[in-house]
Amino acid sequence: MSNALTMTGRSVRLSARTPDALITALVMPVMLMCVFVYFFGGAIETGGEYVQYVVPGVLILCAGFGAGNTAMAVASDMHNGIIDRFRSMDVGGRAILAGHVAASLARNLAATAVVFGVAMAIGFRPQASAAGWLAAIGVLVCYIIALSWLAAAVGLVAKSPEAAGGFTFFIAFLPYPSSGFVPVDTMPSWLRGFAEHQPVTPVIESMRKLLLDQPVGGSGWQAVAWCAGIAVVAVAASGALFRRRTS
Amino acid sequence: MTPPLTPPAIEARGLTKSYGDVAVLRGIDLSVAPGTVFALLGPNGAGKTTTVRILATLLTAGGGTARIAGKDVTAERSAVRRAISVTGQYAALDEELTGAENLRMMGRLAGLSRAAARTRADELLGRFRLTDAASRRVGTYSGGMRRRLDLAASLVGEPSVIFLDEPTTGLDPRSRQEVWELVAGLADAGVTVFLTTQYLEEADRLAGRIALIDGGLIVAEGTAAELKRRVSGERLDLAFAGRGAYEEADRLLGDLVVRREPDELRLGVATSGRAEHVRELLDAVDPDRRLVERFAVHEASLDDVFMTLTAKEPAHV
After folding, report:
1. Sheet strands (E) in B122-229
2. DSSP state letter for A92
3. How many contacts, defined by CB atoms under 8 Å, are there between A and B?
4. Where does it primarily localize (chain A) (predicted)?
């Protein structure tokens, strides 16, 4: 446990020393938010102000970019002599990866704060109670942790840090065929099936409803179940992959 | 009364390792006494790094056993890891962190408190002459500084057995000299040092005992002096007038040649150094007295051992 804390400190420090990746992961979603709100938003019918609709999707997009950084950081560790030093000091793979995941969460929460700040500046007005805020952030934290473990597993599989970075494109694409930017019922029926049943949709739906103080319905539990499922699979897979990579 | 038995610091029995059909190690036996410096000497691809990684718990052997201070590297892995440190061919450091941050992190991972890790880092930075660079990022360090910091990092946990995999590969002569002094210092402090190298001079200078590895097998083991004796006491160097003479003599001597220097048109042949033997060799290679221009007799070097016992050319310093 204390090793995991040391590794978290290391990962947080390393992220702070390479701000370009952090800034890219931050600027892209903020820019996309502005593009959607000002360029496309006027044409999208969501039953209210578009900015009220789009913010959860942007936060999830942001988490996707952050996960790409985590995958790259893990892959780069695996390609560096430092992993052997950690192992020879009896630091387990779980502690090393947990450090990356915790740092990923810290980076993502910082990015989330910035996105919220910009969103408020351009007219986002959440209606949530304190409990609603906590629940919305809780859902986001679950999603970030699940995605970060998945990213860690991808980083262990990737042949190079660059290949791991390619993961960003896949994950960052997932919010588009979801209810993140346009209502699902405007999509062609073949796509709607996917959009309604992929993990990103319940996460976005429950956050949106919590922030706008609307009844969450089943999407809250679906979101948590998806995140828990992804996290369990990713933690198990990354443990097995780490052992395979290092034996 | 029998003296208490101290287990060897490092002991390997029949270590094997294969990747697919390629046998990298084909049965390595080693024993290193505590507090000594041991060199595993061999050309690239001989199996040096694989041996170190198995002994240092980083790689599982295909067969055989290995013990560090009496503890099995597989069954008692954690205990072994507490006793050792490994410095690989590539610096195991975080480039974006400063030298001091790297050492403090290693201190924390070695179980030191925050304050103790700080003290230990400062002490090691001083000892490795890095105090001035302590708050600079490692990315800005020279190759020699990195190597020193890497060695310092490996000492944070006060290991009793230190593995150094090619500690001076890629360093300039001055930095190499510095690393040699640091390694000699470790040995003086009673630490067991296991180093791999492809430099004969390095093994000769640092190690009490040397094992020669080639093609995944230990082909010779002993002190530098013992190994040199295995070849022969002396070496007869023959210098030739031209390329044709050199090649003709090389053909005539065949397996007797222990050293070839084609650019200098010089061949080395093992000899006892006695006048009678030297005369015999000269007659054998040059019965018509037209090929050999000059000759000289030298004490055999580790190069000759290397050449005689391994198939490949040694790397020269």
Report:
1. 161-165, 192-197, 209-214, 217-222
2. -
3. 65
4. membrane
Residue B287 covered by a domain: yes
A154, A158, A162, A167 alpha-carbon torsion, rounded to 10°: -30
- State whether B198 and B291 are in the same domain: no
pLDDT for B198-254, tens place per residue? 888 889 899 999 999 988 999 889 998 888 776 666 788 899 988 988 988 888 887
Identity of the amino acid at A54: V
- Which of B223, B253, B277 finishes a domain? B223
Judged by CB atoms closer than 8 Å, whether chains meet at B94 and A82 is answered as: yes
Q: Which one of A10, A13, A85, A247 would you mutate to disrupt binding with B, by most B Cβ within 10 Å of its Cβ?
A: A85
Q: How many domains does chain B have?
A: 2
Contacts of A226 (CB under 8 A, 6+ apart): A146, A199, A202, A203
- Are residues B55 and B120 both part of a single domain? yes
Q: Which residues of B touch A9 (CB under 8 A)?
A: 105
Residue B80 near residue B73, CB atoms below 8 Å:
yes
pTM of this prediction exceeds 0.80: yes
Considering the domain boundaries, does residue B316 fall inside one? no
Does residue B46 lie in a domain region?
yes
Same domain, yes or no: B219 and B244: no
Location of structure tokens 């390694």: B183
CATH number for position B294? 3.30.70
| Residue B313 included in any domain | no
The domain that holds B35 is classified in CATH as 3.40.50.300
Paired strand residues for B11: B31, B67
Closest by Cβ to A88, choosing from B57, B90, B105: B57
Q: Could you report the per-residue pLDDT of A173-224, keeping only the tens digit for each? A: 888 888 888 888 888 888 888 888 899 999 999 999 999 988 888 888 999 9
pLDDT of residue B32: 95
Q: For B288-314, what is each residue's pLDDT tens digit? A: 888 888 898 887 766 777 777 765 444
For the complex shown, is ipTM > 0.90?
Answer: no
Residues in chain A: 247
Name the domain boundary from B202, B223, B244: B223
What is the span of the domain harbouring residue B64? 10-223
Q: In the structure, how many helices (H) and strands (E) does chain B have?
A: 11, 14
- Counting as low any pLDDT under 50, the low residues of chain B are 312-317
What residue type is assigned to position B49 of the chain? T
Contact B91/A at CB under 8 A? yes
Same domain, yes or no: B187 and B283: no
- For residues B211 and B302, what is the distance between their CA atoms, to the nearest angstrom? 12
